[in-house]
Amino acid sequence: MTKPEIAKLGYVSLVTQDLEKSLGFFREVIGLEETEAINGVHYLRAWGDFEHHTLSLEQGERAYVKHIGWRTKAKEDVSGFKALLGDEGIAVETIAPWSTPGIGEAIRFEAPSGHTFEIYYDVKKPKAPEHRRSVLKNQTYKAWAKGISPRRIDHVNLHTSEDWQVTYKFFQEILGFKLREYLKVDDGDQILAGWMSVTSLVHDVALVSRKKDEIPTNARLHHLSYWVDDSQDVLRAADICKEYNLPICGPGKHSISQALYLYVADPGSGCTVEVFTGGYLIFDPDWEPVAWNESERALGNTYWGDSISAKEIVKYTIEA
Amino acid sequence: MTKPEIAKLGYVSLVTQDLEKSLGFFREVIGLEETEAINGVHYLRAWGDFEHHTLSLEQGERAYVKHIGWRTKAKEDVSGFKALLGDEGIAVETIAPWSTPGIGEAIRFEAPSGHTFEIYYDVKKPKAPEHRRSVLKNQTYKAWAKGISPRRIDHVNLHTSEDWQVTYKFFQEILGFKLREYLKVDDGDQILAGWMSVTSLVHDVALVSRKKDEIPTNARLHHLSYWVDDSQDVLRAADICKEYNLPICGPGKHSISQALYLYVADPGSGCTVEVFTGGYLIFDPDWEPVAWNESERALGNTYWGDSISAKEIVKYTIEA
Amino acid sequence: MTKPEIAKLGYVSLVTQDLEKSLGFFREVIGLEETEAINGVHYLRAWGDFEHHTLSLEQGERAYVKHIGWRTKAKEDVSGFKALLGDEGIAVETIAPWSTPGIGEAIRFEAPSGHTFEIYYDVKKPKAPEHRRSVLKNQTYKAWAKGISPRRIDHVNLHTSEDWQVTYKFFQEILGFKLREYLKVDDGDQILAGWMSVTSLVHDVALVSRKKDEIPTNARLHHLSYWVDDSQDVLRAADICKEYNLPICGPGKHSISQALYLYVADPGSGCTVEVFTGGYLIFDPDWEPVAWNESERALGNTYWGDSISAKEIVKYTIEA
Amino acid sequence: MTKPEIAKLGYVSLVTQDLEKSLGFFREVIGLEETEAINGVHYLRAWGDFEHHTLSLEQGERAYVKHIGWRTKAKEDVSGFKALLGDEGIAVETIAPWSTPGIGEAIRFEAPSGHTFEIYYDVKKPKAPEHRRSVLKNQTYKAWAKGISPRRIDHVNLHTSEDWQVTYKFFQEILGFKLREYLKVDDGDQILAGWMSVTSLVHDVALVSRKKDEIPTNARLHHLSYWVDDSQDVLRAADICKEYNLPICGPGKHSISQALYLYVADPGSGCTVEVFTGGYLIFDPDWEPVAWNESERALGNTYWGDSISAKEIVKYTIEA
User: What range(s) does the VOC domain occupy (chains A, B, C, D) (predicted)?
Assistant: First the structure.
């Protein structure tokens, strides 16, 4: 059997304790488009996202991430992962095809990091409604309709208090993510944070290891990231967030990934969103992961600009 | 046997009839760095390129492209392609490892489009000399040293007068490029131009079919493209080129690929370089190629800005 | 008596044959804010404009510019200009203070160029309504609410078929505009176009001389210009206009003024708006006007980018 | 007698204890052009500066600002200021015309703030040497030759420990600067900092009042500022400074002036340079100064981005 492969990050399923506020934030401030709302769940995407949704929002008692969806490279990879995860002794739930709008046959499981993942291949790629459709046939929506107006989903940043050896091994060996950059303790091999991808992006997922007493639950979503095309879009995003009186961190430039960032929290759920651009792509098949020591942590996080080290809004933002 | 795979565009080997002028153009105007010069061949790369070179320049009687290098995903893909091409009846030349600085075991052959390609896996990734090395450990050179200062090589655009069915089939079925967007005749299936990639870029290579009487040889390099990070960098590039009295085309935005462009020709060789940014990435495994009809050609080329349809400098720039 | 002085361009009073379309264009596409609407006249301004309005829009049988308002440096300059214009034999109409919302004591007259000007000093500078007010106390509205979202009005470009010697003399000697750059015939002194200002901008007004048979009336408003802060805002404006299917000219860079431009026409009135940024400021008291010959006209208009020479939308757009 | 008037900031005359380092910084990192060097004094300007120089650099025992030059609106303003300052009991030194290259008849005096100012009208505006001259006839040098490459000088920021009432009164009533924004104590009228201009800029000079024990001498130059055209240029400047291992503060956005900033110190003299763009212009003759309370000081300084409150490099940088 060929090893099943993940193609890309699909979507984040977010529960918020204040749906109205969260919808206001993601639709007006971030500027996502709503594909549709079914049974109280709102399915959103950026103007350049092609699939049905990259974020779902629904009301709950408390805010948390239900699951994070990953699309596979082929249809048979879904059953391939089912078998592979079973072999690892991981309980796998089968989700009825299309029970989540836009998503066909799917499986769900809890990764050793404590995060619930969904894996699927079949998707719907609905066109935008006529009046919102781009005049460009390779673009879903007209851009720049509202707020920050990012192009597409970029990555997720996950925090865990589970054993680093187990978690990084799982992400790399089972899920097939390649380590691109990582932060390690100054003495020894222990990885404190890893930037990993299945695509040419430096990371589709970053995994940060925390001590149990540092985070209130064992698994958190630190942030969800949307991509904008230009550096100035990040500065414009800062202007927009300030006018909404939202606390921000940034703009700044990461050393790790070389990307520009602005962090802003959804006032409904507390979930942090990173507005992101720049950085480099990895096309080389033999990429040597770039190692940063713990003493370089602040530099790795912030090359220049508003430092993410000291800001409240970038701390373990939401339970996953 | 597993199908051999190309990982990425590697480099363009360019012969110029005026080496001094070409070096001035690529080092001062474009702002490439010179890794080294050996036996009269200058090996250049952008500040964010990781491999030994992405362009080589040497003096010749006339300007032409010797070959275009493609790096494979694995070492065994080189022999894999050798066998595959042999099966197709294509003559394959074996190149002594490291006879080209930075490039190990390699093969060369003429594609049915008339272009000479080199395929290899082993590469050197030399660090920049200390005084030019970036303070960032994930970046090769300090950026912004000179001229336009692009980050990395992006793609090549090839013109051919050979049979479209043969050429597109070869690029897709033998070399494994996926068709991302294409221009076709209004009636029928004939492809006039195809944007193809093995990476998440919309194109690593564009192939344009021309009538024999339209181009002086059967194979041309229309342009070589380097990537800049921001839209404003393209505008800054226009300023820079104008100050050097170089003819330009652009800035403008392609509909196809949604990318921003500026074209400028090397006054030494006549080879056109595209300064390029923006556009979208394709992570979906089931991408449906976007079709543009011949009547949409001008729109596909230029969404807005200085139109590439009427400019001399963007015509079949150099023999390949 | 001290010579009366103009401080700045105030506003353009525009009549449109399709008020609904024009309101849609200026509010949604350009992204101006509406201060108020009184008696069918809509008073608009940009988010960084401080005065009551910089554009007024009203329904009419045909589109034309009623008048263009200029604010003086001091209150007594209004009567000063009244006297000065009277001395020149120009009929001056006195406008009842505050009969135009936001504008106090004012005079109106037809300049020798055929354009009707209003001169006033007293203005209202109303705050934005609470929910639209910027969190910054030195900024009127929150920026980036809709569309292109320029910061402020910049200049007007006027065309005339009247005698060039009379008109340029009037603008300079009576109104006090300083000539900053100009286009002249290759042989002789005849000025074809002059960029003039009372501020540090290269031009608050450009005056273009046309032959009588070139323009349908003797006086036209070629365009009204709004300022954006960054080059990328002009590119973003091009995206926005294309999505509204509006014909544009640009983006490009003028040689004269060194500014970036995008032209787009109001589909209601036909009035062209220039989205404008960059360029230089003149603080020197002894500025020597920069002369361009007629043979440099195309270069003066377009340094690089989409040329304004050939585009329909930039021809004598609206009667004044 | 008409009140004499200042037209603009002319230049800063800087003494450095390490001329070689300072020249390296201002020519390579900031990217200024050298007009000429005479008797060990280097005269520099930005590519868009029109006058002979906007900065002079010379070797000294210690680093300090010799004087800051202001150009008047008319030739007779020089003697006008001489008389006016004499009436105020201020000792005025007459400088031999052209003894400073590029500067004609001039006077020098110590302002009550403790800073030495030079006032003059006659200037030379030398063209750039042929190979560095812009192809644009309204631009001095080709842009983007080296480093940050700003367009022009913008403003100076001065610190003083002298009496605020005396100093602000002098700048406004004698020198004719208009107060545009200011920071005041929460209770009472005492001004802590004032942004003042004679041009349409929000400030040609900022004056910050410090307690005697806060600054080592009674008069300091906090920074000298050069203008870049675009927001992204400030981000690019941050990249450049980091590659030179220079300590920076920013990028960030001031609330006061709404401008973007990056601060970087000359490693030779310790003089801080602000790379600056954005912000608003004031054309209104009746501008009401915007007041910020002491409790808003941090907000006034930094709207978003890297805060200037905590950084060492932005503290009273050089004696004046």
Answer: 8-122, 152-278
